[in-house]
Write a structure and sequence with these properties.
The protein is α+β, with helices and mostly antiparallel strands. It contains 4 helices and 10 strands; from the N terminus they run αββββββββαββαα. It has a 6-stranded antiparallel β-sheet with strand order 1-2-3-4-8-7. The relative contact order is 0.17.
Length: 194
């Protein structure tokens, strides 16, 4: 996997970073723990994004994996990895699917709230994700401590190949996930008190 350096790439990065595409800024209540697809039209282009968010137990965004297909005025396929600021920039983000080779992806840009790594999304990358079981992301914080995250690939293929969710469907999935998480927390607290 190599980072894109083409001038068109710079234009696409600017478009993603300045528009509402794919949540360049972390959303207030991001969906957690499942793959989902959304599509929208903006600035003469259509973008479809397949995304997975990793939240901390306190509900803070730890990472986003975002695969975006942009068609129209600009045509591009990109995979973005988004993490909070406070990262050790030279280390970039390491990505691994199952037991495959680890790939280091350099940071492309950091904003006030997030650091982005971005690579071209090849057909081979999509095939690896569809066949995989788990994706592992590793970043290094400013104290040079490694932070690893495990992301399930269950549901990736259905989201990637299937139709996008409507806003109502996405809201419903977020609410169901919140209920599931609250019930799991209650069970954990109940088991711990016994």
């Amino acid at each position: 996997m190599r980072a894109a350096k083409h001038p068109l790439f710079v234009a696409v990065v600017a478009l993603f970073a300045t528009s509402g595409f794919g949540w360049a800024q972390a959303p207030q209540n991001p969906p957690d723990g499942f793959w989902f697809k959304t599509c929208q039209e903006e600035q003469g282009s259509k973008i479809c994004t397949v995304q997975f968010n990793v939240l901390s137990p306190a509900g803070k965004l730890r990472a986003t994996v975002n695969l975006s297909t942009l068609t129209g005025k600009i045509n591009s396929k990109l995979m973005r990895l988004i993490v909070p600021t406070g990262r050790y920039i030279p280390d970039g983000i390491t990505i691994q699917v199952d037991q495959s080779r680890k790939n280091k992806v350099p940071y492309t840009i950091c904003s006030r709230s997030s650091c982005f790594s971005q690579i071209q999304m090849s057909d081979e990358l999509v095939r690896v994700l569809k066949r995989g079981g788990k994706m592992y992301l590793t970043t290094t914080n400013f104290q040079e401590k490694k932070i690893s995250m495990e992301i399930t690939l269950k549901g990736f293929t259905k989201s990637f190949d299937g139709p996008p969710l409507t806003e109502a469907e996405l809201r419903e999935m977020i609410e169901l996930r919140a209920i599931e998480n609250a019930n799991a927390a209650k069970r954990d607290n109940s088991a711990a008190s016994q």
